[in-house]
Amino acid sequence: MEKENTSILPRWKEFFILPEDNKTTTAVFGSSEGLRKEKKRASQLTSWVIHPYSTFRKYWLVLVILATFLNVIVIPMSVSFFTNAVHNSATWIAVNIVVDILFVADLCLNFRIGYWTEGTEVVILDVKEIKTQYLKSWFIPDLIAVMPIDYVILIVKTLGHASTPTGVAGLRVVKLIKLTRLFSLLRLLRFSRLLRYVRDCEEAYGMSNGGLAEAIQFLHFIVLIVLICHWCACFHFMVANIGDFPANSWITKEGLQNKTMSVQYSRCMFRALCHMMTLNYGSVGVPKGVEQLWVDIISMMMGAVMYALVLAHITAIVTHSGASENVYAHKYNEMCQYMRQCHLPPDLLRRILDHLSCRYLGRYFDEEEILKDLNEPLRRAIIHHNCINFFENHPVFKGASPLFIEEVLEMLKFEFYMAGDLIIRKGDIGDCMYFIEKGDVQVETGTSAEVLSDGSFFGEFCLVTKMNRRCCNVKALSLCRLYSLSASDYLEVVQRFPELLQDVGTVARQRLNSMVPVPVDKADVEQIEDTADAEQVDISFVSVCITNPSNGQVECVGNNDS
User: d(Cα 226, Cα 116) in Å, to the nearest integer?
Assistant: First the structure.
């Protein structure tokens, strides 16, 4: 018998008083080690306390949420549309008793369920603190919501008039029965429990963050609007029903007293929506009687509140969903104002606006700031995903170690060019090379031209020799998305991997031998030689042509045969 108890005890603890082992609880307690410590702390408690992240608590939340949601829908309908036969039926009484017992049990369990504190970020499992917190917060509303006041009043009044069931006294009993139904509306205080438990359930199931949280929040908003309309429809019929359908009532005029409940509810819903949307009165003529007038006033006021909620929620959705578009529009307008202030020519103004439009495509992102918010592995993974195709096609980096590739990837800088933009101009100082993500460029060496496209690269010679002067023009033929890598960044990485320097020189030799000699100044040749000596790079394979200023003829120097 003792062995059986010891085998059942761990399962019982895991179900009731120990937190679940999943992604949500691991994130709540910081790590798997933190979760393990929390389990150990909960298992060592001498008093019986249900952990807020236990399996029992999670399923109990779902059960109470479903029961509460049915209550806030069915209770107004029962007060308004249900006949005495339905109210006195054994089925309806049994359902009410079961639901009330469920909420009484929940009320008692709240004195034994721990809670999460936002300030200290600790789960409180002390019984005294739990009781104090619950008594100070939601105990009174929950207590009123479970009190069977309607049944007590009904029993007392019925017993008081039991000896005179007919005549005037009998009519009073019937009217008292209708009035006692109003006290069942106190159960609508369970709606506060619904809101609290839905939030707790979202946290327990890990649905309080991310895109799913936004969808759930929008669903909450839709459900709230539907509930408000439902309550208004029930309220319209309830007022007339309690007054025994007076002759000037809109229900009497339309002959709805003896219609089916579906017809009555549909007509009341239509009238409530007409009032809430301020379309019309939902029936012929202005409402008669003070009661009907105030019912319509309350409906219109609730409609105004609903309008405000809808407008605020839609505004929030548009603002948050279009954050990047709003930033882009602000940048675009700011650029337009700046250009008007500078009195730029129309052609340049058009090129600038086209550049903004094509680069950001209507959405502005600060990639550097976004990547700063991520940790290093995620940052490297994003850059690796965006740029790895370049390095797979680049002969300089083929076969290089993954660590070397990762070092270079973090140093890439994004650049964007429009068709016709001169990316590299011959004779300019060059300190970087470019990788083409998308687009076409034309490399002009003076006597020939070559078109490079996606996955290609250009300007890499400066990485090997630190040659200051560009020896060709490179022009964008279409919209070009490029990544640049500076020579200083490259050499910083190469210092950690000196064995790659020879491989880079070999690849550069192959590319230079395939190029047509380009005329440059003699000073540039001396600078290349000085740089090569300082970096200990073999440039005997470089063939350079110098223009003789005396006769204008081009003379080639360098050992191109080696």
Answer: 31
Write down the mean pLDDT value for the chain: 75
pLDDT digits (tens, 9 = 90+) for 95-143: 888 888 998 999 999 999 998 886 667 888 889 999 999 999 888 888 8
Q: Are 416 and 482 in contact (CB under 8 A)?
A: yes
Closest CA to 56 of 31, 23, 19: 19
- From the list 160, 140, 143, 163, the residue with the least C-alpha distance to 152 is 160
- What proportion of the chain, given as a percentage, has pLDDT over 70? 72
The answer to whether 320 touches 326, Cβ cutoff 8 Å, is no
Give the tens place of pLDDT for each residue, 180-206: 666 677 777 777 777 788 877 777 666
**How many Cα atoms occupy the beta-carbon half-sphere of 100 within 13 Å?**
19
> Can you state the angle between helices 190-204 and 139-146, rounded to 10 degrees?
120
Cα distances from 325 to residues 194, 268, 330, 331, 434, in angstroms, run: 36, 43, 9, 10, 29
Give pLDDT, residue 182.
Answer: 67
161 vs 191, which has greater pLDDT?
A: 191
Instruction: For the beta carbon of residue 162, count every other beta carbon within 10 angstroms.
Output: 10
Rounded average pLDDT over 544-552: 44
Contacts of range 91-99, beta carbons closer than 8 Å, 24 or more positions apart: 99/67, 99/70, 99/71
The closest alpha carbon to 173, from 193, 154, 149, 147, belongs to: 154
d(CA 216, CA 94): 33
pLDDT tens across 396-449, in order? Answer: 566 667 777 777 777 878 888 988 889 988 888 888 888 887 789 998 877 778
Q: How many whole angstroms separate alpha carbon 238 and alpha carbon 80?
A: 4
CB 481 within 8 A of CB 439: yes
Amino acid at site 215: A
d(CA 304, CA 65): 28
**3-class DSSP state for residue 95?**
helix
Alpha helices by DSSP H, 210-322 = 211-242, 250-253, 261-276, 290-321
- Distance from C-alpha of 236 to C-alpha of 429, rounded to nearest angstrom: 82
Two tokens, residue 412: 């890439």
